[in-house]
Amino acid sequence: MRSKSQTTLLRTVGLHAVLVPLALIWLFPIWMMVVFSTQPENAIFSANLTLLPSDQFVENFSRLEADTGFLRTVFVSVVVALVYTVLSVMLTSMAGWALARYSFVGKGVVLAIILGTLTLPYFVVVIPQFIMVARDFGLGNTWFALIVPPLFNSLGVLFMRQAFSMMPAELFDAARVEGVKEWQIFLRVALPMARPTMAALCIILFLASWNNYLWPLLINNRPDMMTAPVALGSLIGLTRVSWGGIMTGAVVLTVPMLVVFVVLQRHFVAGIAAGAIK
After folding, report:
1. Which of 69, 87, 182, 206 is the most buried (most CB within 10 A)?
2. pLDDT tens, 25-60?
3. Is 213 in contact with 31 (CB distance < 8 Å)?
């Protein structure tokens, strides 16, 4: 018994000896981003590397706000990411439920098409999508154009289909025998059981929308509809690059990501535990 505990201890120490340096290597660029956001621009490219924060964060943020109206762009990004995440999770859940629990003509073809879209580079789709939304429908510079076109998510559909496929069919058959309608089975039985998967999907979709740069850049040219990543990209000019503003904005944009992940991670673990107990 003592030999086994010693082996476990040595294995744990060895594992931490490998993972801790790797974690520090991964965290070092993030820490330097925080440090650079608190320094004047001439100190960022100084030959003397400083590892401790300075006192220029407020000044850098004020300059960033004056150049881009950054608080407004953050508000636009928050609204777009939240609405996109809610709508996309709803649509992918319904599509995943239909593909997992119903049989219909052409089901295999639909699945093949969804899988095929995963192999297409985004740049192949974005130009026809832009032409259709901006030129044919005339919806450029609108909330609709920012949120609706990217809603279809092949990965989310397959994600939810797999979650619903792993649920016992007997449970849904028993609900049908009791006279529960199909939409009630989906909303009151299937979705609560898929809560861990939905939490993980919410994190993925929110971060994808929050970091989306190309589509908001193409579909919008109005300053009042600019998202935060596009605002940071506008700081890179032909003759001047505001590195202090970019680093400050990057720090501000990182905070909501961490908050969303931490909050939904708690629900994710709670959902798994509840499913295990049931």
Report:
1. 206
2. 988 888 888 888 888 877 777 777 788 888 888 888
3. no
